[in-house]
Amino acid sequence: MGPVLAGVLQLLALIGALALAHIPLGNHMAKVYSSDRHWRVEKWIYQGIGADPDTQMRWPAYLRGVLAFSAAGVLFLYLLQRLQGVLPGSLGFSSIDPDQAFNTAVSFVTNTNWQSYYGEQTMGHLVQTAGLAVQNFVSAAVGIAVAVALVRGFARSRTGELGNFWSDLVRGVVRVLLPFSLVVAVVLVACGVIQNFSGIHEVGQFTGGSQQWNGGAVASQEAIKEIGTNGGGYFNANSAHPFENPTPFTNLLQIFLMLVIPFALTRTFGVMVGSVRQGYAILATMATIWVGFVALTMWSEFAHHGPALQIAGGAMEGKETRFGVGASSIFAVSTTLTSTGAVDSFHSSFTGLGGGITMLGMMLGEIAPGGTGSGLYGMLIMAVVAVFIAGLMVGRTPEYLGKKIGTREIKFAACYILITPALVLVFTAAAMALPTPGHSMTNSGAHGFSEILYAYTSASNNNGSAFAGLNADTQWFNTTLGLAMVLGRFLPMVFVLALAGSLAEQQPVPVTAGTLRTEKPLFTGLLVGAILIITGLTYFPALALGPLAEGLAS
Amino acid sequence: MNNSVTNTARLLGAGLRALLVLTVLTGVIYPLAVTGVAQAVFPGTANGSEIKSEGKVVGSSLIGQQKYSLDYFQPRPANGLGVNSVNTQYRLILSGATNRSADNPDLIKWVKEAKAKVVRDNSTADHKVSPSDVPADAVTSSGSGLDPDISPAYADLQVHRIAERDGLPVARVRKLVDDHTEGRTLGFIGEPRVNVLELNIALRELIRGQ
């Protein structure tokens, strides 16, 4: 069997596994977020928080919960890093500098997991497990909570009530993420991922002498890193590091894990709005883009255009032998079309076009299938925009799932889709215009520009992967990328929740012969087109200067 | 004004309490539980898959090593590997890739030089290696810099050199490579590979045993 066929079979195996898993998991999540029963452990947690989980919140209250919880998260994680040197469990590592501590705190709270530090030489056991890994759980749960609030906005009528943030947060952790992670973490250890709390290992080498590596709770962090579409590696090499991702099987498992909750949420959505076919239309849109992007990247990587790769005879720079070109391409596309940002191969050394596709995946807003929660709400915003465009074509007030998309709704959706491109392009332009940020580039020319464009695209979309030649541990990048992450996470959430509140207040309109059938393939086609055209046109000039210029030159 | 300050403070307090409770659950209980299970059931892998030869630990089967002499099988280049620059009381391996783009002059130079070296090192008196025989993994750095494996093609390419330098029959060395070649998982997952450390341990036993 050739590597191309093996790559295609791995893609088909993933599609099969996701098709099987998304229905029970989606149904489970629908039940979790609709149930009015509390588990005993959850009641203890609510007592600890001092919150009543049965109070219904309108959108401003829900948003305040999100913001207060996230602000507390940033503060706690910042202080934990600043004090690392004097706290136990530090492995003797010193405290983190203010700009890097800010960047990292924001990065993990916003589900971005951009890393301007080298994990193995910087973060001790305490910060990794009680700081970073905790945010892996809760930032994912916040994302799902906001998505569920939007779904309730569609499902409910003549009420402004969107649910209870504390209850959604806690249930996401206790009933979805934690049990799932426990099982996966043990499987990962069985396959070779390390899990210990010992200090620095000094181990003999074959050729004499010794090498040092640090132990750590890697498997427990690795599981939620993928399940919560976080992506922050324990080690610098992330999922390329054999202690994080030791075998071809764990690699395929990790790709599956980062995709499964985002895809399953389309089922949750379908069940909660009372029509699983509406969920399938959204699922089909996501799957079309994901499969298409994987195919393009595989084609480009197997063709290995670019001088160094041509001389080498294959695109193996930055890729591991055990994964090869095929599986690395699937991983790269899946990590950038979700908000994961974990890498099992280094995107900067991909072909020009292959690297460009990973960038375009993030630029689409990470909605195919997107991050945990953020993928679904991002896609539903695009669905609102698509029905609006369709409504304009036929001169009829657009509606989606029985809710009118009026002036207010489309304003919220439009603000949502403008935020990230504005952040990406303004920050990139500023970095290019100033004299010093360019000194951080490893590569020159089009690829050097791509490093900076990639960084702001990744931060603003809360992805976290990088063209990692860029030395991002400078005050400029730590600060501006930190700001891009905060604004790129929470401003869109404001508009999502405002939209949810506005939809929930409406009286549903009856379906008539003139209603656009949003559960049909025609709508999926319209939605794919709207996504590609809107984002494609926004970013085309920037892409032309970076990856397109590099790809077409080789 | 006062009212809104109190409200904000109350809300932040709730956020902080929620964070602390969830930290206990996901940041203390969860990792300890996983560690407990891991250390009880899979102590070997949980502690780094260390591998012994002649009674001594010689590394981890998962972590590739550099600096083998030419008498042994060579790993992939690791131009992205670093040493730690902070907390320098340790000598930690810093995993990483080169991050050089396909049109980067450094990378073009590294690949050309690596290719020339592979051809030179592996051409013996009665076996000439041509540049087109050299597989891509032999001249490129991996993502982690710690890739424990090479492709079977690169291992095969080194067979004649090993046989000549170690005074072993070519067929014997080739069989050793075949015995250490791992195919795709279930026939389609990942790529075929040879673990360099395990192969070299077996080679050393073969040399010493003959």
Automatic annotation (TrEMBL), chain A:
Positions of transmembrane segments: 61-80, 137-155, 176-197, 252-273, 280-299, 374-394, 415-434, 481-501, 522-544
InterPro entries given in the database record: KdpA
Family designation: Belongs to the KdpA family.
Role noted for this protein: Part of the high-affinity ATP-driven potassium transport (or Kdp) system, which catalyzes the hydrolysis of ATP coupled with the electrogenic transport of potassium into the cytoplasm. This subunit binds the extracellular potassium ions and delivers the ions to the membrane domain of KdpB through an intramembrane tunnel.
Compartments where located: Cell membrane
One protein family per Pfam: KdpA
Chief location of this protein within or outside the cell: membrane
Quaternary assembly: The system is composed of three essential subunits: KdpA, KdpB and KdpC.
GO MF term (any one): potassium ion binding
Keywords: Cell membrane, Ion transport, Membrane, Potassium, Potassium transport, Transmembrane, Transmembrane helix, Transport
Bilayer topology: Multi-pass membrane protein
Gene name in the database record: kdpA
Record-linked PANTHER family: POTASSIUM-TRANSPORTING ATPASE A CHAIN (PTHR30607), POTASSIUM-TRANSPORTING ATPASE POTASSIUM-BINDING SUBUNIT (PTHR30607:SF2)
Protein name: Potassium-transporting ATPase potassium-binding subunit
GO CC annotation: plasma membrane
From TrEMBL, chain B:
GO MF annotations in UniProt: ATP binding; P-type potassium transmembrane transporter activity
UniProt cross-references to InterPro entries, sorted A to Z: KdpC (IPR003820)
GO terms under cellular component: plasma membrane
Subcellular localization: Cell membrane
Membrane topology: Single-pass membrane protein
Source organism, top-level taxon: Bacteria
Keywords tagged on the record: ATP-binding, Cell membrane, Ion transport, Membrane, Nucleotide-binding, Potassium, Potassium transport, Transmembrane, Transmembrane helix, Transport
Region (Disordered): 122-145
Family: Belongs to the KdpC family.
Known partners and oligomeric status: The system is composed of three essential subunits: KdpA, KdpB and KdpC.
Role description: Part of the high-affinity ATP-driven potassium transport (or Kdp) system, which catalyzes the hydrolysis of ATP coupled with the electrogenic transport of potassium into the cytoplasm. This subunit acts as a catalytic chaperone that increases the ATP-binding affinity of the ATP-hydrolyzing subunit KdpB by the formation of a transient KdpB/KdpC/ATP ternary complex.
Name the UniProt record assigns to this protein: Potassium-transporting ATPase KdpC subunit
